[in-house]
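Priority: low. Protein: Transcriptional regulator. Input follows.
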Amino acid sequence: MQIRVANPADIGHAIKAVRKHQRVRQDDLAAMVDSSHVFLRDVESGKGTVQLGRVLHLLEELGIGVILDVPDASGITTTSTTTNPRART
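Result:
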């Protein structure tokens, strides 16, 4: 299933729904991604100031893929990249 994301709350609702469907508690999921239950609560409530890298790691842990629909004229030549979400550049 695909959903359109317009704001942080959309991501939070998706994360919460998938977590509940998988019957995972907030504190357990937070531990899986080396974060606190407060971070997970903030994400699920749609807080816009959470760290993107940590959110991407959370999405990956839940099996939620992220695809960006980039205009063809953008000049981007690669179709996919694989990076470590915890790597610092």
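The two ends are 33 Å apart (CA to CA). The chain has one domain: 8-72.
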